[in-house]
Amino acid sequence: MSRLRESRWSGFGFLLLLLLLWEAAGRYGWIHKLFFPPATKILASFFQIVASGEVLGHVGVSLWRAGLGYGLAALVAITLGVLMGYWRVAYESLEVVVELLRAVPPPAIIPVAIVFLGIGDQMKVFIILFSCAFPILVNTMDGVRSVDPVLVRTARTFGLGQGALLWKVVLPAASPFIMTGLRIAVAIALILVVISEMVGATSGIGYFILDSQRSFRIPQMYAGMLVLALLGYTLNRGFLLADARLMAWHKGLTARQR
Amino acid sequence: MLEVRELRKEFQPLSGQPVVALGSVSFRVESGQFVSIVGPSGCGKSTLLQCIAGLSRPSAGRVLLHGREVTGPPEGLILLFQEYNKSLMAWRSVLRNVRFGLENRAGMSRGEMDAEARRYLELVGLKGFEAHYPWELSGGMQQRVAIARALVRRPEVMLMDEPFGSLDALTRIELEDALLRLWESLRATILFVTHDIEEAVYLSDRVYVLSCRPALVIEEIEVKLERPRHQLTTREDPRFIQARRHVFELISKEMAKA
Amino acid sequence: MARLPGKGLAVLLGCLVLWEVLARQSGALALYFPPASQVLATLAAIVGNGELLGHIAASLWRFAQGYALAAALAVSAGLCFGLWRPLYVLFEPLIELLRPMPSPATIPIAILFLGIGDRMKVAVTVYACFWPILLNTIDGVRAIDPVLMNTAATFRLGPWERFRKVVLPAASPQIVTGLRVSLAIALILVTTSEMVVSNDGLGFYILDRQRSFQIPEMYAAIVALAMIGYGLNRLFLTLDGWAMAWYKGLTRKEEIL
Question: Structure pTM?
Fold first, then answer.
């Protein structure tokens, strides 16, 4: 996302041009009188739903669901990933089951979750947990497996026990990979929370957008999408900042290697 | 037949003064000669070759091939790159890599091109490796594939950018002699860039010593040693030792300035 | 994958047996979580009597259209953007703005303009698959080593020849990565759009069975969907292994070194 800042003015100019075209298209009904409102109308709706707190409530709910699912997924997947990455036995035993579960497209699990958990928050958190777990797991496994055996042996010669070894050596060494998995999972969490809210919900930003469309509040629908895009952008940016801070050592290392 | 006249090349970095890589380089190469260019590291030798090969536009001065100015890659001239492994195509077999040198020539059938490619592979000592992939070969062998690929076009002029720099001493000796044999049988003109003084004197008819940035030709040294050259006897010849000392002193003085 | 995953299969078998035993013990549990044997039997039944096949066909057709269209558009665009930096710079803010928006959010707008039929579902799929393929293609082209491009220049290759013989092969590993990632995404979007609004397709079927409390059928269809996803993935890997054999060899060599 830092690429955004490096873009030269032609890109922003182009964007501006598109917005102006949108405005004209909306105002003069070039595309569709009802379904393609002018940009200004959408912006107006955007400010209205934000200011009235209406959409913020939905966003809050979505973030709560996504955050909980994501956090639990991280906990489970990193733990499992370390186990499977470090101990061959664990890997060989669990890989088949993991691969089979991974093959199921996450939306297909939604009805199952509804059967067990109804259409409330629990169902959504579970779906997000299920979907986010796999990328985090796979990347954690890769990370642990790629830890240099020399590093591990060195630690052993310093007399480190198994627990300390995992916590102080393996985990930090694998952290760049884990971060990659966590980063992918952020986008997935957002996607799944929207999906689960569109399939069965009465709150949340995904529900908000779909409901706006169904009740033909079109500018509001677009405004909701704008909110969601901004949310996605902010989360991504936030993650990159955290990543840069935590993984500064890795950035320096890879920059030098290049 | 190849003339470089007051060649100047400047680079504009993101901030600050322009960097003058080549100040004013002038020299002449006659047909069929083996000429080396030596100089301290980073003094613009690669830049010089890029300009001569028509891959880089000089800031001032000209390169003339058969009296005609070089403005783009000229017919009959091939540049061999320092990073030969990056210049070979990983998706093509050794044979097809060499065949690549002929592919944009009209009038040859695929069978004819393959036959030529095989001929030159044998010439560089790689018979039997046609079906291998470049990354399956050692550094020295990869370099030979690159040479065969250039030779298959039967160029008048070959520019070689530190071709043996990253190889071990024994492979280097082998390839130096192989190159001389090829040169003698094909009578191309070779412009050879190296940082290895002994190699330059051993191989060439003439050695040009390049200064540091901005690069100039400090001196032209004629190597009046008989051919064919021998790794042991030629290198023990007092004239070799004298020439080597002369070049060494010039370069040492240059490096002390930096 | 010549090595048989013995332990893995054993664990899987163990889980299935456990599931079977538990489900048979408790009638209530069997309602929500029918034993594997029943699920598989149901699957055979609904495939056998043709009930599921129509839905599978519908989903696969949408998937194929969406994926193929996205690939064609995104690879073309990616090649253009990768080769002509000014063009990329022009579109970059737009790309960076649209990229982080979760793809399901386009479903309502697609319904608005395209209705609730196949076109909407294909459009949504195309949109979602477009970005990973595009970005990977751009990266693939940008990452081509300048030495390779210079080699093409010194051998005096024309622009079309250079594109065909150097740019495309050199960028292909990265392009293939993008295509692989989009495979799963396509399936997800097709399924999702079928769940939100549809009257056929696997996504619709699964949700519909849940709503009418035909639980074994629901699980059976999920298994079918998983198998399809797995099968598509395997197919892709096979084609990939065949076309990209050189790349596999190259990267393996680098690992050993």
Answer: 0.86
